[in-house]
Design brief:
Helix 4 links the parallel strand 2 and strand 3. Strands 1, 2, 3, 4, 5, 6, 7 and 8 form an 8-stranded mixed β-sheet that branches. The protein is built from 9 helices and 8 strands. The radius of gyration is 18 Å and the shape is globular. The protein has a single domain, classed as Vaccinia Virus protein VP39 (Rossmann fold, 3-Layer(aba) Sandwich), CATH 3.40.50.150. Helix 1 packs across helix 9, helix 2 packs parallel to helix 3 and helix 8 packs antiparallel against helix 9. It is an alpha/beta fold and about 250 residues long.
Length: about 250
């Protein structure tokens, strides 16, 4: 699909492919008090890997970085080399829909802004299979933060992510999946802007000039700008929640 070409070009220009920041990554990792001193880690939907590199710094673990877009993985490994942690990271070009790891493999599974591709409930169950006994899962998930979101916002998510719910609905799914919730916290608005939407707006400006007569490309960039505008207007109503949990058995 031609549009995906421009989507990937836009997102490859960003330091992250979704909201987040290193401070939140560190805070989530800190909350897992009993994680192995040298954990075997799977980072699902790693993108260009800002959080992967940070995990390599703080976990002293071996990390499988999974993404299905090779240019993202190439950028990740460039960053890992610059940070001196490349030997801790193994990139793997594979869709999360086709993961074929053995069950009970990982001490820790990480996924910032990506597990929704599996659906939250299905993603929890898949991660549970792959985790060792008492392994940890840390994941950010889109949620409503206030009741009665505006109709236009609900319509957007009905199209883009119909599984969105409030925080309590996600806690119910975590319990049903037989995880023990360790903690959860909401990503700050700066995590949406500093490494994601602000760089995206700058990239959109550049790409619009590059593709000034390309209708397909311009629609992609317009959709991205509309998403930014939606967040600026309704950011009190929705956000990412960081859920940190442990497999019970």
């Amino acid at each position: 699909m031609e549009a995906m070409k421009y989507f990937y070009e836009l997102f490859s220009m960003l330091p992250r492919q979704g909201p987040g920041d290193n401070q939140s990554t560190r805070e989530a990792f800190r909350l897992m008090e009993e994680v192995s001193s040298e954990p075997y880690v799977l980072d699902i939907g790693c993108g260009v890997g800002m959080q992967t590199v940070e995990l390599a710094r703080i976990s002293n673990g071996a990390i499988i970085a999974l993404d299905n877009h090779q240019p993202f993985l190439d950028k990740l490994m460039e960053k890992a080399k610059q940070a001196g942690v490349a030997e801790k990271i193994t990139p793997r070009n594979q869709s999360m829909l086709e993961m074929n790891f053995d069950n009970n493999t990982f001490d820790l599974i990480w996924s910032e802004g990506a597990l929704y591709f599996l659906g939250f409930a299905n993603g929890l169950m898949k991660c549970k299979e792959l985790l060792k006994k008492h392994g940890y899962l840390a994941v950010t998930e889109m949620v409503y933060l206030l009741p009665a979101p505006p109709a236009s916002l609900q319509q957007f998510f009905e199209k883009e992510y119909p599984d969105i719910g409030d925080i309590q609905s996600k806690l119910v799914l975590i319990e049903k999946a037989d995880f023990n919730l360790i903690s959860h916290f909401t990503l700050p608005k700066s995590a949406w802007l500093d490494n994601f939407y602000s760089p995206m707006e700058e990239a959109i400006k550049l790409l619009k000039k590059k593709y000034t007569d390309n209708e397909v490309a311009l629609r992609v960039f317009e959709d991205a700008q509309n998403e930014i505008n939606l967040y600026n207007k309704y950011s009190d109503y929705f956000g990412y929640e960081f859920f940190i949990m442990q497999k019970n058995t």
